[in-house]
Design brief:
The protein has 13 helices and 17 strands. It is α/β, with parallel strands linked by helices. The strands form 5 sheets. A 4-stranded mixed β-sheet has the order 1-2-3-15. A 4-stranded parallel β-sheet has the order 6-5-7-10, with helices on both faces. Helix 3 (71-84) packs parallel to helix 9 (276-291) and helix 10 runs parallel beside helix 12. The longest helix is centred in the C-terminal third of the chain and has 20 residues, at 369-388. The structure holds pyridoxal-5'-phosphate. Pyridoxal-5'-phosphate binds at residues 94-96, 99, 127-129, 180, 184-185, 213, 215-216, 241.
Length: 398
């Protein structure tokens, strides 16, 4: 009997080491990693610069708590403010905590405006985490079922539909809008840039906070630091995590303007949040992204992958849509395809399937063009074979 709690359906493999976009299992077999720890290993595995910084920091100072000033945290906050246009940062350890901080900022902001029961507009198919507040904000019944009563104070509308948000404005308790500019868990659903601009205008008009969850899509994956930068807007609040520490757990809630002044000492906190080790890893990640020109690489390799997928699967029955931006890509099929993750593993490739029917690719930002071509040459035949199978067709009809 395993003593690990039964919360994941895991694939039958255990990795012992990695290098760049490659992983090796216990038997010495090599795998091309196109999922990067679910958008976490920004710099790939065992990046020498990151490893050096982590080792040095661990040898000097791991943790002191937020009872004291933390030099690395202050430096990281400065750097994040510079690349994002935000004013300040609350540090935590994960994406759900970053979203929890955002939700608390919105509620406190509402109370300070005299709104007694502040509510936040959230989207269908969104994912914000698995704590009680963030699963309540999440637009997926599977994530919520069994954990009722949900946390109140969320008004749900369809994604990418600004008219629906405009209609929600009739509710005077609304104080904020929370949106992923590209929904990750929800199936790689891209918002239009006009939608983001319209949301910004609507929030300005009503005095709401625009809270942009960049936990999965942010930090360089689409060729800019953050997706909202493609739309030329600034959010008021931005939760961020996953790729920030390139594998060392760290989350952050960035805020701007009034939102940045909402919390006061005693309102929020975290024992581990922003400790010297995590912040040193995040600083090293950001520096490496700049030094290695990884934003441009993400855009270039992402464009190659998207074109390769579209060309390789063109006209194929069963392919609903191939979409993505930079190194965040989805292939939606007309049938459940979870089995493809296992088939890819057998073929030496790590991918993931979300929402049952969407193959998801989230490779490290260091992926090279030759590696992207290897990815295509392994994945495309698997998808073609899968769609050609009578069993898969039957499953689609069922
Ligand atoms: N927000 C988004 C957009 C996510 O994709 C995720 C995780 O997938 C989260 C929040 C939650 O992050 P974590 O699992 O680190 O709590």
């Amino acid at each position: 009997m395993s003593h690990v709690m039964n919360t994941y359906s895991r694939l039958p493999v255990s990795f012992v080491r990695g290098e760049g976009v490659w992983l090796w299992d216990e038997a010495g077999r090599r795998y091309l990693d196109a999922i990067a720890g679910i958008a976490v290993n920004t710099l790939g595995h065992a990046h020498p610069g990151l490893v050096r910084v982590i080792a040095e920091q661990a040898g000097r100072l791991l943790h002191v708590s937020n009872l004291y000033r933390i030099d690395e945290q202050e430096k990281l906050a400065d750097k994040l403010a510079a690349i994002s246009g935000m004013d300040n940062a609350f540090f935590c350890n994960s994406g759900c905590e970053a979203n929890e901080a955002a939700i608390k900022i919105a509620r406190l902001y509402g109370h300070k405006k005299g709104v007694e029961q502040p509510a936040i507009v959230v989207m269908d198919k969104s994912f914000h985490g698995r704590t009680l507040a963030t699963l309540s904000a999440t637009g997926n019944r599977k994530v919520q079922a069994g954990f009722e009563p949900l946390v109140p104070g969320f008004v749900r509308v369809p994604f990418n539909d600004v008219a629906a948000v405009r209609r929600a404005a009739a509710d005077s308790s609304i104080v904020a809008v929370l949106v992923e500019p590209i929904q990750g868990e929800g199936g790689i659903n891209l918002s239009s840039m006009n939608y983001l601009r319209d949301l910004r205008a609507l929030c300005d008009q009503h005095g709401w906070l625009l809270m942009v969850d960049e936990v999965q899509c942010g930090l360089g994956r689409t060729g800019r630091w953050f997706v909202y930068q493609h739309a030329g807007i600034l959010p008021d609040v931005m939760p961020l995590a996953k790729g920030l520490g390139s594998g060392v757990p760290i989350g952050v809630c960035l805020a701007r303007g009034t939102a940045a002044q909402t919390f006061e000492p005693g309102n929020h906190g975290s024992t581990f949040g922003g400790n010297p080790l995590a912040c040193a890893a995040a600083l090293a990640t950001l520096e490496a992204i700049e030094r290695q020109d990884l934003l441009r690489n993400a855009e270039r390799v992402g464009t190659l992958l998207l074109a390769g997928l579209r060309e390789g699967l063109a006209g194929l029955d069963g392919v609903v849509e191939i979409r993505g931006h930079g190194l965040m890509l989805g292939i939606e099929l007309d049938r459940p395809c979870g089995v493809l993750a296992r088939k890819a593993l057998e073929a030496g490739l790590l991918i993931n399937v979300t929402m049952d029917t969407v193959i998801r690719l989230l490779p490290a930002l260091v992926m090279q063009e030759t590696e992207a071509r290897q990815l295509l040459s392994t994945l495309l035949p698997l998808v073609r074979d899968f769609l050609a199978q009578p069993a898969a067709a039957a499953a689609a009809r069922a």
